[in-house]
Design brief:
The protein has a single domain, classed as Aldolase class I (TIM Barrel). Helix 5 crosses helix 7, helix 7 runs parallel beside helix 8 and helix 10 runs parallel beside helix 11. The longest helix is centred in the C-terminal third of the chain and has 18 residues. The protein has 11 helices and 8 strands. An 8-stranded parallel beta barrel has the order 1-2-3-4-5-6-7-8, surrounded by 6 helices. It has 250 residues and is an alpha/beta fold. Helix content is 40%, strand content 16%. It binds 1,3-dihydroxyacetonephosphate (13P).
Length: 250
């Protein structure tokens, strides 16, 4: 069974409510002809409600940029899975490299978020990726394996659509340096091999693995041609409707 491509836009800490609404409107208008793929938008929390209104009736999926694990409680600054579902979010980015490296999120904390999301019906997009020093020291695969095993500890899923993985080499994020298609495919193939050890083969073979890191309209085609690349997690280029539209239409 072919995996359905997923093009996801991570807007990071950008857009006011007005800007987010205008961007979402332009993306909805550009997406009406897309039937064989999914598009997900992850605006900042403050714009989720407005973007939910704007995309209503379209096929676009709403995602959050992070997610708390408990359903409610004394967790100042966190947003729970039921709160996100209430806004129409069905997916959440977890363990983004900026959460790991700027805010110190560990595999253990990320695993709690993944568990909370899966158990409460939000699809995690678990982000993993090596830093430049790790790649240069030939440690890429062991870093990816550690992040996958740590983030997915005690997770069991019966349906491959309950989980998405995003491979985002840290050195490629916001730098204009996309991983080469060969480097990306090598990492994605390895990720799938680790997933096969964690889940039933029939499930692991259907889990989507996105590539992220300086994806632009000129690079998406060759990335999507690789066997184990099932979509993209786009940062900077997702903020420009023209670029994101070209990426969606790869
Ligand atoms: P850029 O596309 O800006 O490199 O960001 C990638 C990213 O971090 C998406 O989550």
């Amino acid at each position: 069974m072919p995996r359905i491509p997923l093009i996801a836009g991570n807007w990071k800490m950008h857009t006011t409510i007005g800007e987010a609404t205008a961007l979402a409107k332009a993306i909805v208008a550009a997406s009406t002809d897309l039937v064989d793929r999914q598009v997900m938008l992850a605006p900042p929390f403050t714009a989720l409600a407005a973007v939910a209104d704007t995309i209503r009736g379209s096929n676009i999926i709403l995602g959050a940029q992070n997610i708390g694990w408990a359903s409610q409680g004394a967790f100042t600054g966190e947003i729970s899975p039921p709160m996100l579902k209430d806004l129409g979010c069905t997916m959440a980015i977890i363990g983004h490299s900026e959460r790991r490296h700027i805010f110190g999120e560990t595999d253990e904390l990320i695993n709690r978020r993944v568990k909370g999301a899966v158990s409460q019906g939000v699809i995690p997009i678990l982000c993993i990726g090596e830093q430049l020093e790790e790649r240069e020291a030939d440690r890429t695969m062991s870093v990816l394996e550690g992040q996958l095993k740590g983030g997915l500890q005690e997770i069991s899923i019966a349906d491959p659509n309950q989980l998405v993985i995003a491979y985002e080499p840290v050195w490629a994020i916001g730098t204009g340096k996309t991983a080469s298609p060969i480097q990306a495919q090598e990492a994605h193939k390895f990720i799938r091999h680790v997933l096969v050890n964690l889940f039933e083969k029939s499930v692991a073979s259907q889990i989507r693995i996105l590539y992220g890191g300086s994806v632009i309209p000129d690079t998406i085609g060759i990335l999507m041609d690789q066997d184990d690349i099932d979509g993209a997690l786009v940062g900077g280029a997702a903020l420009q409707p023209g670029s994101f539209s070209r990426i969606m239409h790869f």
